[in-house]
Design goal:
The protein has 199 residues and is of the alpha/beta class. Helix content is 26%, strand content 32%. It has five helices and nine strands. It has helices at 45-53, 71-79, 92-104, 138-148, 168-177; strands at 17-24, 27-34, 60-65, 83-88, 111-114, 125-130, 152-163, 182-188, 191-197. The chain starts with 16 loop residues before the first strand and ends with a strand.
């Protein structure tokens, strides 16, 4: 039997839903997670750090990269009335939950979760927010970032939260070497919050 990962396209684990409450940027809301999806039943520590350490963005078109059940993108949509959020993931169960959560929160007019191939190739974003899927491996992560970072608009930025012991500092250096200057906005509880801009 092969081990299932949250980044599997179609997890084999029996699908059970689990609801929990999230607090982000002064808003409390319920999200439903599920088996076979990252951080089932609770907000993961990295995303919690992101919400605590940064102010919400102001307005614009956002990409939630590796969205899972939608925690980051839905928090942005809830806190930022002038935000529209596109969320992407390869896990179809996660996409189902993210879109269900958006409908339950009344945000489905400004939030949609889809497979990467379903995003129009000419679509660009003011900001990318992500708790990136580090565990897919360095090569796959680099490929993922080099695919999506060019979708940033000229003055755009990417915000990522990455575990210090999962390679945050080496990722920051690598991004700079690729022409994507990256600065550390916060460092807390073993996590780095990184901001990447166009070179």
């Amino acid at each position: 039997m092969t081990e299932d990962h949250y980044f599997s396209a179609d997890p084999a684990a029996p699908f059970t839903r689990e609801a929990f409450e999230v607090e982000a940027w002064g808003h409390c809301f319920d999200l439903v997670s599920g088996s076979g999806v990252f951080s089932r039943g609770h907000l993961d520590h990295a995303t919690a750090v992101l919400f605590r350490e940064l102010e919400p963005p102001v307005q614009g078109q956002f990409l939630d990269l590796g969205c899972g059940y939608g925690a980051i993108g839905l928090a942005i949509a809830r806190a930022v009335p002038l935000a529209t959020v596109t969320a992407v993931d390869v896990n179809e169960r996660a996409l189902l939950l993210a879109n269900e959560n958006a409908r339950a929160m009344g945000l489905d007019s400004r939030f949609v979760a889809a497979l990467p191939a379903q995003i129009p190739s000419d679509m660009t974003f003011d900001e990318i927010w992500s708790n990136p899927p580090i565990r897919i491996g360095k090569a796959a992560l680099h490929e993922l970032l080099l695919l999506w970072l060019p979708r940033l608009r000229p003055d755009g930025r990417a915000i990522m939260v990455v575990g210090k012991f999962l390679g945050a500092d080496s990722l920051q250096r690598w991004l700079g070497e690729q022409g994507w200057p990256t600065t550390r906005l916060a460092s807390v509880k073993g996590f780095r919050v990184l901001e990447t801009r166009r070179g």
